[in-house]
Amino acid sequence: MNSSQHVKITTADPSAIGLFGLAIVTLVASTQKLEWTHGLSDVIPWAIFLGAFAQLFAAVQDSKHGNTFGTTAFAAYGFFWLGVASTWMINMGVFGEKLAGSVDTHQLGAAFVGYLIFTLFMTIGAMETNKVLFIIFVLIDFLFIGLSLSTLGIAEGFFHDVAAVSEFLIALMSLYGCGANVLNNHFGRTFLPIGKPFGIFKK
User: Fold this and answer.
1) What are φ and ψ of residue 120, in 5° steps?
2) What is the pLDDT at residue 2?
3) Half-sphere exposure (CA, 13 Å, Cβ side) for 112?
4) Under 8 Å CB-to-CB from 104, ≥6 apart: which residues?
5) In this structure, are residues 174 and 22 in contact, taking their beta carbons and an 8 Å threshold?
6) Residue 76 CA neighbour count, 13 Å, CB half
7) How far apart are CA 175 and CA 160, in angstroms?
8) What is the spatial distance between Cα 138 and Cα 45, in angstroms, rounded to a whole number?
9) Could you name the domain of life of the organism this protein comes from (predicted)?
10) Would the pLDDT of 164 be above 90?
11) Is 47 exposed, middle or buried (0-12, 13-18, 19+ CB in 10 A)?
12) What is the pTM of this model?
């Protein structure tokens, strides 16, 4: 090949696979919170492979686009699901009775509060991405409000239900966002609308 020739290398938008991972894990996990299913044994694989690995893959690919927002969001929530899956396994005694017997759920509550704070400022960033993503982040805000307060023992039943419903709605919106991303890119036009950025912080 002539040295004067340059090959332009492009990478696909990874948001679709990241949103798909988020959609599937929240769909499966929400069925347990809503008591449509029982136990966590069959939730753990989806938390690891879809919640964690799919979103971490999207984060790595987003970094190649120079997308700090997407990289941070997908990586943070990918690691979240690894942490949650590990917590479930500890509680189930997978790593031994000693670890299972020394669990203090307030530590998990502190992690949820940290993720709530993180998600609140990421929601501001989502306002300048598209409206579907903004709605997803608002729902994640409510998920972490529910998880934080119920885990810390504050109106446990009510906030557990808030978390459960929010998580199910996250799944539905993420599936739509995934489909829109794939089809809009595939057809080269707006096949499924995602809504324009609000234009408040970025003109």
Assistant:
1) -60, -45
2) 46
3) 24
4) none
5) yes
6) 16
7) 23
8) 26
9) Bacteria
10) yes
11) buried
12) 0.93
If pLDDT is split at 50, 70 and 90, which confidence band does 11 have? confident
**129-162: pLDDT as tens digits:** 999 999 999 999 999 999 999 999 999 999 999 9
- Using alpha carbons only, give the angle 29, 30, 35 rounded to the nearest 5 degrees: 105
Q: In a 10 Å sphere around its CB, with 0-12 CB exposed, 13-18 middle and 19+ buried, how is residue 57 labelled?
A: middle
CB 177 within 8 A of CB 17: no
What is the average pLDDT score of the chain?
A: 94
Taking CA atoms, 50 is separated from 24, 34, 62, 195, 197, in Å, by 7, 20, 17, 26, 27
For residues 171 and 8, what is the distance between their CA atoms, to the nearest angstrom? Answer: 36
Q: Which two tokens stand for residue 125?
A: 């960033």
Q: 3 pLDDT exceeds 50?
A: no
List pLDDT tens digits, range 46-79. 999 999 999 999 999 999 999 999 999 999 999 9
Sign of CA dihedral 115, 116, 117, 121: positive
* Residue 15 and residue 170 in contact, taking contact as beta carbons nearer than 8 Å: no
Phi, psi dihedral angles at 36 (to 5 degrees) = -80, -25
**Which residues, in sequence order, are CB contacts of 179 under 8 Å at separation 6+?**
192
Q: Any idea how long the chain is?
A: 203
